[in-house]
Structure prediction request, 307 residues.
Amino acid sequence: MMNGEISKSSSQQLSIENAKQLLNSVDAFLFDCDGVIWKGDKLIDGVPQTLDMLRSLGKKLVFVTNNSTKSRKKYAEKFHSLGIPVNEDEIFSSSFAAAMYLKVNDFPREKKVYVIGEEGILEELKLAGFTALGGPADGKKNPELKSNCLFEHDKSVGAVVVGLDQYINFYKLQYGALCIRENPGCLFIATNRDASGHLTDLQEWPGAGCMVAAVCGATQKEPIVVGKPSTFLMDFLLQKYNITTSRMCMVGDRLDTDILFGQNAGCRTLLVFSGVVNESAFQDLSKELQVQPEYYTNSVSDILKYV
Ligand SMILES: [Mg+2]
Prediction:
């Protein structure tokens, strides 16, 4: 892990003075989505105008989301439905990260992947040429807890991928845990460990960290995390954009994923209060987690306001 010099100085509130400086020293903005661009299906005020302005200045826009329920294709559709033109290849989701992790590590094609998660992970695994089991299809299954009943699992499962899953149940937990415990060398991959997220506009909901913790509890094993704050996805970003990380700015609403990811990768960082962290809790939380953003402000639209 690299910790940039930036992280050692104290955080500054974004202002007319420093916003221009930041803009001039950055070629790409990396945005988290939930709590930054939208809350559930509701856009955060001023976001489309701000993104338009940044594009008109020639800045690259990249969307790095830990929410694995959608594939990059489905995220592009969501952006379009909200009136924001974003290409699929500008989106780096943790569902994509899970599939790419298996790909770059030469996961054998004849092995299968068991998924505790939603469509996004299944779609990305399929696109990458892997065979997946589980996911929504196991959402209504119930294991039979009676004597002489043996829960069977596929011995050719070589990886279990766990992400946000609103249909998590006892069946999936038993299936995933058996694969991890009993299939030799079976990988345990977590898309991310966010404690919560703004899955709807009015409330926070349990995040993938909750599903991952359940599997950790059942297996006493720790996962490989491929989403933020892991910098695994940064390699793919660097392959696509010829921009050094010190000229990228990560914009997010979580200190322990977004801002830490930015710091780990050597990016500039901007924390926004439009998601899970609010201004009154920020300073204490920042000390507790020992993660300090370079800048903080209320919302992404402040960039437009100050420039
Ligand atoms: Mg977020």
Summary: Residues 1-8 have pLDDT under 50 and may be disordered.
